[in-house]
Amino acid sequence: MNAEVIAVGSELLLGQITNTNARFLSQHLAEIGVNIYYHTVVGDNEERLKAAVKLAKSRADLIVFSGGLGPTKDDLTKETIARMLGTTLEYNEEALAGIQAYFDKTGRVMTENNKKQALVIKGSTVLKNDNGMAPGMFTKADGKYYVLLPGPPREMQPMFLNYGRPEIVNVIEKVERIESRVLRFFGIGESTLETDIDDILMKQTNPTIAPLAGDGEVTLRITAKHESSDEAFRMIQQAEDEILERVGHYFYGYDETTIAAELADQLKEKKLTIAAAESLTGGLFLGELTAIPGMSTHIKGGIVCYTNEVKKQVLGVKSDTLSRYGAVSSECAKELAENVRNLCESDIGISFTGVAGPDPLEGHEPGTVFLAIAAEGLETIVHPLKMVGSREGVRKRTVKYGCHYLLQAFAEMF
Fold first, then answer.
1. What is the pLDDT of residue 227?
2. The whole model's pTM is what?
3. Distance between CA 86 and CA 253 in Å, rounded?
4. I want to staple 374 with a disulfide (CB 3.0 to 4.6 A). Which of 34, 254, 329, 380 is the partner?
5. What are the structural domains of the chain?
6. How distant is the alpha carbon of residue 202 from its chain centre?
7. Beta strand residue intervals within 9-135, DSSP E
């Protein structure tokens, strides 16, 4: 079954409220195997709503509406749908009694327009509103199914789960579960990753694999459909294993995790401590880690060493190093990482030095970065980086590269 969600309300188009209903409905429809291919938002206008419904009918078996069931003149969803289906509205006595009871309880007089909320499409299955006044509706016409739901989420969500969803399940010939998993990668570009798994992408049917790049990272969403949730996840795991065999070196976690959160988990698991010397990142690295609960026993400290004076006087970088190689150099990064580890008596020291921009520094172009990792008994590793983008983008990606190289070091050395 293919579905389209139509949200009705000019306030959505004006940006006065966020359309959270569409996300909720998509998530729960996917759970019962309904494909959502389109979301539409339309204002409180009958002609535009008719046009949206006509288009939806051409490409969906099920059309789910949210909004436009209230008492005012611009609440016109059910009136419009009834006319399009060649039928009329009628009062639902149970809903009308509930509205009257509400006004009696509050000591207010029910105005005539409030009765409008009890009108439903003739012949439809009425969906009870346990948290408001206007009931919802489920009906079929011309081989299409229509679900009408109120706009307020506190009314719409329980109505859909308790009454709307069961009606949809009843008419689906074969209920399929749709399960998905997101794989997160860092240190590889979207085009390179796609090239490395191009044959896997070309043959995909079920499960499907969707790449997405953003914020310096690449994700792959693997989605499988099957009557059995366990079988769907087995299919996902099979696809994941094939993908990670190719590009597993860049994989760091699943779903909504972050690379900093994965680093924090590794520090906890391995019972390691860390200290940081941050020049161009200005504290962003430790800021990411300290935002994660439970890190107080794993972070020994850090120095924001923006100037050469601090690099020399606080972190002990040799004057000769700065005069011969400059602050933006592998030599300086190496000394910073080793010295901050010794100063803070931590298991690991990491340093960041470079040029965030917008102007060059010491003859280096913006995006030139040196990142070093030092650990007791191991040779200090320096990673030179060349990045493009805004000043803030360079700084943020530098922090992610720090997490990335530390995770690699943990896998290989600790």
1. 86
2. 0.75
3. 53
4. 380
5. 2-170 (3.40.980.10), 177-254 (3.30.70.2860), 259-413 (3.90.950.20)
6. 25
7. 35-42, 62-66, 89-91, 119-121, 125-127
